[in-house]
Amino acid sequence: MRITRYLASKLKDFSNLPKEYIERSKKQIYYETPREVNYLPRTVERKRYRYTTNRPWSGHFRQQNMPGTMRRKVFVEAIEDWSFFRGDRIEVLVGKDKGKQGIVTQVIPERNWVIVEGINWHYRRVGAEKEFPGIIIKSEAPLHVTKDIRLVDPSDLQGTEFEWRFTEEGEKVRVSLRSGRIIPIPETNNQTYDYKTPNAYLEREKDTTAAVVGEITFKPKLCTFEMDIMEEMGIKEERTPAKSYWY
Question: pTM (2 decimals)?
Answer without folding.
Answer: 0.72
